[in-house]
From TrEMBL:
Residues 193-327 form the AAA+ ATPase domain. Residues 1-19 have a biased composition (Polar residues). It comes from Rubinisphaera italica. The lineage of its organism: Bacteria, Pseudomonadati, Planctomycetota, Planctomycetia, Planctomycetales. The gene is dnaA_1. Keywords: ATP-binding, Cytoplasm, DNA replication, DNA-binding, Lipid-binding, Nucleotide-binding. Belongs to the DnaA family. GO terms for cellular component: cytoplasm; plasma membrane. This is Chromosomal replication initiator protein DnaA.
Length: 506
């Protein structure tokens, strides 16, 4: 699968080249054949979009209800076809996409006599919604024979190129103005300082937005430069393919010739020793020739505990900068700007309600606004606080992630590099006592488990051991004491926030 990739032609064109469209169309055709014409028409045609990001094929649908229904019904055939089109690593996700909702409502107004369409329209959102992280990059939409005569609608369904987010649309506040300023500097003077520039932070708080903003701005500032954006996973897949096909020289030529390399989700490399060396050589070579490298991950490089030392040192040799969840004022501004952009009439107290309720993750915040917009679209009413409460009630509940003790154990083991069976054993070695104490503390914070239940899960310890672990951990947080991970000490607060962010992602 090709990465999102843009370069100039010899004529100096500044257009992005998207190679996703043929894959998306092939996916649609093959799916139609596999599930049959009538099911395809009923569930996909005129009401879905297909977007490809690396190995992830996203089917956009019109409502949260449909995401659940479609994954239940079509996950298996869609994955089978995606793998045939994109390779074995391909995955399929069903997500809400405003373009699919638009398609559906346009289709409905065209063929309102069709009862089949009506039955789907009744499922339009009253509850959960989520804007795709890469929602700006709709690649191709399902074709619509019934609409083909309608020029206006056909225009809207035409395949679009990926649109990168803009740095100017990024709302800044205390937790993110420095990372944003760094993005501006790097986009103006790539390769000159902060190389590599490494962003880290929790889920849905703008890392990809900043990467896309840099991509876009470099392309504007330096139209004939080659800028490549992809995920670490896509890099790994290319590398594996090149190894398999014995085409490593071509692979290296391609990746080491770019002027700016932008790689998202670097944490993927943590568990993939096989790609680390190649990735390390790639960025080393680029940086040594003054090319810019920009990276993003969910953790600080030192918390990627399975990384080769030369790679984490390389990450640390530029600028490592943390993005924090936006504070209330920043969230209010994000809501204001987004509702303005959608021309959504909404009262100030409804804005406050959304900004207060959806506090951890901007993607969820934007998803909430999209739900309000659908309500407005359907009712033509101004969105006030009562409507906002009503519409977002389910979504608010869905955003509360259920955390299990096994999630906590997994996250702690991953961070400290210890084995799960050791963490839950009766062993008392020093390298296990701190991670275990932390895991017990998090189990109390995030699950409903009682002290004795937690104790039982950690080597049959009694409830007083768990109570003292919790007390000691609280003390460490209050006094801002440090915890050792491999060779380095971290503040207890930083470790707990990192783990909690991962628990929220799942
Ligand atoms: N400060 C901000 N101002 C405006 N929009 C924002 C801001 N932060 C995030 N967003 C928007 O929120 C959505 C999610 O952001 P993004 O995809 O960049 O998150 P992320 O940190 O990369 O998440 P993940 O860890 O899941 O990859 C995007 O639509 C993005 O444009």
């Amino acid at each position: 699968m090709p990465p999102e990739w843009s370069h100039s032609s010899n004529e100096g064109s500044t257009q992005s080249i998207s190679t996703d469209r043929p894959y998306a169309e092939k996916f649609q055709q093959s799916l139609r054949q596999l599930i049959g014409e009538s099911r395809y028409q009923k569930w996909f045609q005129n009401r879905s979009t297909v977007t490809i990001h690396g190995d992830v094929l996203v089917v956009g649908v019109a409502s949260p209800f449909l995401t659940k229904w479609m994954s239940k019904e079509f996950q298996q055939p869609a994955t089978q076809i995606a793998r045939e089109c994109l390779g074995l690593a391909a995955q399929v996700r069903f997500e809400v996409d405003a373009a699919a909702a638009e398609q559906l409502s346009a289709f409905q107004s065209q063929v309102s006599s069709s009862s089949e369409v009506k039955s789907v329209v009744t499922t339009l959102p009253h509850s959960a919604n989520e804007e795709s992280k890469d929602g700006s990059s709709v690649t191709t939409a399902a074709t619509l024979p019934a609409m083909k005569k309608n020029q206006k609608i056909r225009g809207r369904l035409a395949p679009r190129r990926r649109r990168f987010a803009s740095l100017n649309d990024f709302v800044t506040g205390p937790g993110n103005h420095v990372p944003h300023a760094m993005a501006k500097i790097v986009a103006e003077h790539p390769g000159e300082q902060y190389n590599p520039l490494y962003y880290y932070g929790g889920v849905g708080i703008g890392k990809t937005h900043l990467l896309e903003g840099i991509h876009r701005e470099v392309r504007q500032n330096y139209p004939d430069w080659q800028v490549m954006s992809l995920t670490a996973e896509a890099f790994g897949n290319y590398y594996t393919k090149a190894l398999y096909e014995k085409s490593l020289p071509a692979f290296r030529k391609k990746f080491r010739a770019v002027d700016v390399l932008i790689v998202d989700d670097i944490d993927f490399l943590d568990a993939k020793k096989g790609f680390q060396e190649e990735f390390c050589h790639t960025i080393q070579e680029l940086i040594s020739y003054g090319r810019q490298v920009v990276l993003a991950a969910d953790r600080h490089p030192r918390m990627l505990t399975h990384l080769r030392p030369e790679l984490s040192t390389r990450f640390l040799s530029g600028l490592v900068t943390r993005l924090e969840s936006p504070d209330l004022e920043t969230r209010r501004e994000i809501v204001r700007r987004h509702t303005d952009k959608l021309s959504l009439p909404v009262t100030d107290d409804a804005i406050d309600f959304v900004a207060t309720k959806f506090s951890r993750n901007v993607r969820e915040l934007i998803g909430a606004i999209n739900c309000l917009q659908t309500y407005h679209h359907m009712t033509k009413r101004m969105v006030g606080i009562t409507a906002a409460r009503e519409i977002l009630r389910d979504l608010e509940r869905d955003c509360l992630k259920i955390v299990r003790t096994s999630d906590i154990q997994h996250a702690v083991c991953n961070l400290f590099g210890v084995q799960p069976e050791d963490l839950i054993s009766a062993k008392r070695s020093r390298n296990l006592s701190q991670p275990r104490m932390l895991a017990m503390y998090l189990s109390r914070q995030w699950t409903q488990a009682a002290y004795h239940e937690i104790g039982k899960q950690y080597g049959g310890r009694n409830h007083s051991t768990v109570m003292s672990a919790e007390k000691r951990m609280k003390q460490m947080l209050e006094r801002n004491e440090s915890i050792q991970i491999s060779t380095r000490k971290w503040s207890a607060q930083e470790i707990v926030s990192t783990l909690e962010e991962q628990l929220q992602v799942g």
